[in-house]
Amino acid sequence: MKAIVIGGGLVGAACADALARHSALNGQAARVTVLEPGPVGGGATAAGMGHLVVMDDSPAQLALTARSLELWEALAPALPSQADYHGCGTLWVASDEEELAAVEPKRRAYLAAGREATLLDAAELARAEPNLRPGLAGALRVPGDSVVYAPVVAQFLLERAGATVRREAVAELRDGGVRLESGEMLRADVVVVANGIGAVSLLPGLPLRQRKGHLLITERGPIHVHHQLVELGYLKSAHGNDEDSVAFNVQPRPTGQLLIGSSRQFEQPDREIDWPLLRRMLRRAAEFLPALENISALRIWTGQRCASPDHLPLVGPHPHLDGVFLATGHEGLGITTALGTAELLAAQVFGVPSELLAHDFTPARFDRLPEVAHA
Amino acid sequence: MPERTLAVLTLEGVRVTVPAGTTVLAALQNAGLSPLRRSLSGEARGALCGMGSCSECRAVVDGLTVRTCLTPVHDGQSVQRLGIVNREV
Amino acid sequence: MKSDLWDAVVVGAGPAGLMAALTAAQGGLRVLLLDAQPTAGGQIWRGAAAGQKGAAGDLLRDVASHPGITVLSGAEVIAAEAGKPHVLTVTSPAGLTHVHAARVILCTGATERFLPFDGWTLPGVVGAGGLQAMSKGGLDVRGKRVVVAGSGPLLLAVAAGLRQKGARVLAVAEQAGLPGVAAFGVTAARLPGKATEALELAAGLRGVPYWADCAVVRASGQDQLQTVTLRRGRREVTLACDYLAVGFGLMPETRVAALLGCSLDAQGAVDVNVWQATGVSGIYAAGEVCGIGGVDGALLEGFVAGCAASGQINRLHDAPRRAEIQRRFQTVLERSFALRPDRLPIPSPHTIVCRCEDVRHGDLQGFTNWTAAKLQTRCGMGACQGRVCGPVTETLYGWRFGGVRAPLAPLPLSQLLAEPTVLGPP
Which residues are in the FAD/NAD(P)-binding domain (chain C) (predicted)? Predict the structure, then answer.
C-alpha cells in the first residue's frame, strides 16, 4: 500500500506509524511518505504543553482521550528517554465547595471510562502540593495522566514507521494523490491530511479556526510541583466561549522547569506575545501558586490550536474525495489524542474494529464540507 | 581617588566584606566558592563570559536566581550557589 | 500634558553609546541612555570613573553632567517593537518599564565567540574578554597563572591588562599565522593614535611568549582547571595554570536590532549607511554592533549617529574620511584574524556544545539545521537560550541560528505579574 501523510507533527507521525503497522499486519508492505516542509514536530506539536490528559467535556472526548491514554501507556516503554515521558498525573483543583461538588460526577465518568480518579480533600491537596495557596477546597486526582516532549515522539514514530520524510509543501489534493509546490505529482492509495490548520489551505471552508495560546517556561527549580495542575474552573471559566480567556494550568517538566499556561484567543493568527493577556494568565497562575513570584521566565511563546466547532477532531474519510482522509482539528488535545486518532484512522482505512468507531469523529458530521480546491 | 567603601554580605552563611563596586560573581570567586553549579550531567561549572550572556554564573541572591556578573554587591545581601538550593538531577 | 516620548533612546553605554548620547543631546534631543551593566563605560571602559584622566573619564563626565541625558544602568532591553513610536521594554531591578522613542541608536557592542573543546566547561576556563571583565568586576588575579588563547587583538589587551593586575601570563596563543598578525600590526601602527597604543601594549607584554599558529587542544582538571594543552605546529605543549582565558574574536550583539527588524550583513553586523542609519526608519546603529573595529571607530560612529539623529549635519564635515580610515582598519582586522579551520579546537563526540542542557557534539550529528536540532536535542533551550551554543553551531556546522525572541534575558515572573511602568523624559 502507498500512503501519503501531509504533516509531520505528532498526529501525522502517529498516523504514519499506524498505517505502516496495520498494513504489515495485513501482509502488505506499506510505503508511507510524510510531507513536511518544516522540521518534524516543529508546529503545534512543539508549541503545545505536551500533556496527556483525560477530558470529559463530551462522551466522545472522554472515549478518545481515555483510549489514547491506554495507547500512550503501551507506547511509553519503547520511547527514547529524550521523549521525557513522565507519569505525573493531573490534579483538577477546586477553589471552592461549588467546584468541589462538580468533582464527583467527573470522578464517576473517569471511572466508567476505565481511568482511575480519586478525590482529595483540602488537607490531602495541601500535602500533595505544598506550593498551592492555602484555602483551596480539594481536587480530583487523575494518576494516569502524563506529560511528554512531543517533537521527539514524532521523530520516533516516523522512524518506527519506516516513513520517508520529504521536506515539501503540498499545493493541491488531486484524485489519487497530491501535487507538490515543486509541481511534482505523487500518487497514493491513501492520503491523510494531518497538517493542523494548514488543512484549510488545501480544503478551504473546512470548519476549522485558529485559537491562539501563550505558554511560558521557567528556569529550573527551586519551586517543586508534583502533578500537572489545572483549575476545575478551566471547564466553566476558560475556554467555553469566544472571548479571550485564561486559566490556571501548570506542569512540572522532567527538566525541573515549570510550564505555565493557558490562554485562548480566536482570530489572532500572528505569533506576537500579547503582554497584557500574558499578565492575566500569569496572575491567574500565581493566584494558585504564589511562589511563582520568586522564579524567572526563560522563554515565552505562542502557538495556534486548530479548533473545530464541537471541539472534537475531524478524523475520517473526506465525503467527496476518494482515498482522502482527514486527521485534524484537535484543538488543545492533539498530543493526548494523536494515538487514538491514529488507531481510529487505521480502523477506518483497513476496516478493523476499534471502540472509537462508536462515536462520530468523521468530517461528514458537519453539514457543509467543501469540494477539493483546484489551484 | 575617592576612598572605596565596603559592603558586607553573606556568602552561603559566611559574612564577608568586599569593596563596593565588586560584582557578586567576583565575591564568590574570591571566596573560593567553586564550582558555582553542577550541570545536568553533574559536571562542575564556573563563570564563562563575565558579561551577562552565558548564564553560567547564576546564583540565588536574596531569593532570586540572577546572573551574578551583572549584580553589584550591597550590604546585607545573601548569596547561595544554585546547586545548594536546587540539586539539579 | 507631559509627553512620554523620548527624542532618542541609546541602547548601550560603551564608547559608541556614550558618544552618541552626548552628541545627540548637544543637538538638543532629550536622550535616554540604557545599559545592562551596573555602571556605564561598556566592557572596554568598565570601572573607569567619570572625570578620570583620559578620553573615558572625559566622556563619562560629560554624559553624566549633561542635563539632556538620563542614564539608566542595570537595564536590559528584553523586547522591542519598531513603529511610531518605537517601543522598548526594559527590565531592571525596579521592574518592567516601557520606553517610547522617536529614534533609537543601537550601541549594543559585541560578545565573545566561544568554541568548544574537551574541558572547556571546567571552572577556570573563561572567555578572554570574560576574564578581563571579571577582573574589572573585582576578581583578584594576583599571582594567578593565566594562559590567554584563541584569536584576535583582544588577546593582547587582555594579557596586558591581567598582567597589570598582578596575574602571571604564561603565554598568548593565537590561532592566526604570523604574517596576518604582522600585517595587522603594521596597519595599526599607521593609524593615528594606534601606534602609541600598540607600544604601550608591547611594553605591558614584555617577556610574555606570543605563539602564533597555535591551537587549543584541551583543558584538563578534576572539577577545576589544572592544565591546558596547546598545539604549536606538530608539537603539543601542556601548561599548568589557574585560568585559560579563551575567545575566538568578537561578534556583533545584534539581538535588539533583530527584534526591531534591522537587516544584517554577511558578517552578521547591522547594516548601516554612511549616516549610521539602519534600514528601519528612525533606527541608527553605531560601534561594534556594526562590525568589530575597536574603540576609535566606535567613538566616531557614535558621533556620526548622534549628529544624524539630531540633524547636526554641519558637524559631520570630515567624519566620512575618518570613518573610511576606520573601516580599512576593520577590514585588515577581519583578514588578519580570520578563523582557520585547521587551527580551531576540534570537539570530540563527547565535547559539550550546549552548556545549559549538556548537549554534546555527538548528539548533534545528523541534523541539518538549528531548529530541528533544538527540537530533538534541547540544544539552545536552556538558561542562555542559545547565546553561547547558537554561534558555536554556526561555526561548527554552518547552521543559521534563528533563536532571537523576546524576552532577551531571563525575566523574573514578579516583573511580569506587575503592571509595567512607562519611563518618560523628566
Answer: 7-293
